[in-house]
């Protein structure tokens, strides 16, 4: 079976990021959209942003986000773009469904297929 290209894997990023944001947001939206601002709309603060960063680093095999990169991440779409770019450059990998399900279970929620 041929291996998926990194570009194809990048298509799988947004639903997982949206799901993790929905789970971890202090003020969660029923459906997360790219324009949601992490701090102003979803209520993230330093501790929950750190928790989100660690979850996404684990799920996607990302290197730690630099402070310079973090300063540019204002919205959910910014986070998705950062990870999609890393996947496209083979610096990260798509999250497996099993890993996402494990994170959801860890927080006592079922995976929302809408992302």
TrEMBL record:
Keywords: Phosphopantetheine, Phosphoprotein. The keyword Cell division does not apply. SUPFAM superfamilies: ACP-like. InterPro entries: ACP-like_sf (IPR036736), PP-bd_ACP (IPR009081), Ppantetheine_attach_site (IPR006162). It comes from the Bacteria. PROSITE patterns: CARRIER (PS50075), PHOSPHOPANTETHEINE (PS00012). Residues 11-87 form the Carrier domain. This is Acyl carrier protein.
